[in-house]
Design a protein that fits this description.
Layout (H helix, E strand, L loop, with lengths): L17 H6 L35 E5 L2 E5 L27 H14 L3 E5 L27 H17 L3 E4 L5 E5 L5 E5 L21 E8 L2 E8 L6 E4 L3 E3 L3 E3 L1 E4 L13 E2 L25 E4 L5 E3 L14 E2 L3 E4 L3 E9 L2 E10 L6 E6 L2 E4 L5 E8 L3 E9 L2 E11 L6 E5 L2 E4 L2 E4 L3 E10 L5 E9 L7
Parallel strand pairs: 2-3, 3-4, 4-6, 10-19, 21-29
Antiparallel strand pairs: 1-2, 5-6, 7-8, 9-12, 11-17, 12-13, 14-16, 14-18, 15-17, 18-19, 20-22, 22-25, 23-24, 23-28, 26-27, 28-29
Helix pairs in contact: 2-3
């Protein structure tokens, strides 16, 4: 059963799905009785005539090269729920139990080259430090160590391994946790989207006790996931220096306020960083690899002013020119920029200025034009000598539009002049082509924390000589 739906069982009757089947009956097949999704990619295009009425309690959904299998363990175990399933077991495919159904569905999908995920409510293991667990949630797994439900923990992990399952999505424990089962199958506990956190002790990044949800991406056999924190609107605070000197390093920290205000286990300030051992707030026996990393990314608005510095475990999906996962930056050139932190739906930014030193920034700057630039010739259009670090932009413009950028960088002063040449070609759809005859402007801009210095000159491109 999908996480969070166990409360829809008929009160006082374990395994009675009457309420559940009615409440979700209007959902699209294969979950409910409505017509299947029409969007491209969904494999279930028609509902079989023998499908029983009411919402299904175990089923699978195919979307492109991914299969998601839903299993019902709302009775504290899987086997205990088998007798009340919809569709009923045994079925026409020969599945006598839900584990038969899961194993066969997973194996068939794996043989077709699909990635396979399973969704159910109660986990097979509880990786938490039990000394901090809420007393009613000790060993919060199927069966709680008693009866057939306890045996189902082992049976499920065996079936998941045999079926080639790539990951199992779980709820039940109010918090964010991870563990690996038999065969190295990854299990994700994401029960922290709502309800009180199941702890009597410390909360936060180092313990997995915080509110969040999971995003999963399956692409060409590769699986990437993010555990996304839930924050109040405008709930992220960004801390770090506002003023820097060129060449200095800087680190920015971010904290998010979660939307819980009365529960003793509230998280008023979730640190957006990787969990560490030893934990900052209190010792814990929860393994470090059982605690997920809060999703976040730091971005600079101008890497020529303040450039990102990658950390050892930085996110490979980031834009290395502008982003870093862990808040490390280096002040590059004098100027003004913004450092932004984004986590889930919330984001905030902080203005940062990098100051120049005393004295002249530019010792010499000149733009050169030409009355006639023949095709194939190269023309020196700019000469610059800096007195200290600055951002240099040399570009060719025509009719108010930039058609070629010759230099765009944060540069340090040197003994030699910086020179930029133009060969009479312009950029067009990512390629260089010969400029049309006409008048162009060579423009030099030197930018810093002071007023931008500008120089420009006209260049007339001649028509190519006619062939005889």
């Amino acid at each position: 059963m999908p996480p969070g739906t166990a409360g829809l069982l008929t009160p006082g009757v374990q395994g009675d799905l009457t309420n559940y089947k009615q409440v979700f009956s209007d959902r699209p097949y294969p979950f409910g009785d409505a017509a299947p999704y029409k969007a491209s990619g969904f494999a279930q295009r028609s509902r079989p005539a023998d499908d029983p009425p009411g919402a299904s309690s175990h089923y699978f959904v195919d979307y492109e090269k991914v299969r998601v299998i839903f299993v019902d363990n709302s009775c504290w175990g899987i086997a205990d729920c088998d007798s009340s399933q919809n569709p009923p077991l045994s079925d026409a495919q020969g599945n006598r139990t839900q584990l038969d159904f899961m194993r066969r569905s997973a194996s068939d999908a794996s043989a077709q080259g699909k990635q396979v995920f399973v969704v159910m409510h109660i986990p097979t293991r509880d990786p938490r430090d039990q000394s901090y667990a809420d007393p009613t949630t000790f060993d919060h797994v199927m069966g709680k160590g008693l009866g057939t439900g306890a045996v189902d923990n082992m049976r499920f992990e065996e079936a998941a391994e045999q079926g080639g399952v790539d990951g199992v999505m779980l709820g039940h424990i109010k918090g964010q946790l991870l563990y690996k089962g038999r065969g190295g199958v990854q299990y994700y506990i994401d029960g922290g989207a709502g309800g009180e956190l199941y702890t009597t002790g410390p909360v936060g990044t180092d313990h997995g006790y915080w509110h969040g949800f999971r995003l999963l991406r399956a692409d060409g056999g590769r699986v990437t996931t993010d555990t996304v924190p839930i924050f109040v609107k405008d709930g992220i605070r960004l801390e770090g220096p506002r003023h820097l000197r060129a060449g200095a390093g800087a680190h920015y920290d971010a904290f998010g306020r979660q939307p819980v205000f009365e529960d003793p286990a509230m998280v008023p300030s979730l640190e957006l960083r990787d969990p560490i051992r030893p934990a900052q707030s209190a010792p814990t026996t929860t393994p470090l690899d059982a605690v997920p990393v809060p999703a976040r990314i730091f971005t600079t608005s101008d890497p020529q002013v303040i450039a990102p510095v990658a950390s050892r475990g930085d996110d490979s999906r980031r834009d290395p020119k502008t982003q870093t996962e862990d808040g490390g930056f280096r002040a590059a050139c004098p100027g003004r920029a913004r450092v932004r932190i984004t986590s889930g739906f919330e984001t905030t930014a902080k203005p940062v200025s990098v100051a120049s030193a005393r004295g002249r920034i530019v010792r010499r700057a000149k733009a050169y034009g030409a009355k006639r630039l023949r095709p194939g010739r190269r023309l020196t259009v700019a000469r610059v000598r800096l007195g200290q670090r600055a951002r240099l932009l040399v570009r060719i413009r025509r009719k108010g539009r930039t058609v070629r950028v010759l230099r765009n960088a944060c540069l340090a002063p040197g003994s030699k002049q910086l020179r930029a040449r133009w060969d009479g070609r312009v950029s067009s759809r990512g390629k260089l082509r010969r400029a049309r005859a006409g008048t162009y402007r060579a423009q030099v801009l030197i930018r810093s924390d002071r007023r931008t210095l500008k120089r420009s000159a006209l260049v007339r491109v001649a028509r190519p000589a006619k062939r005889r």
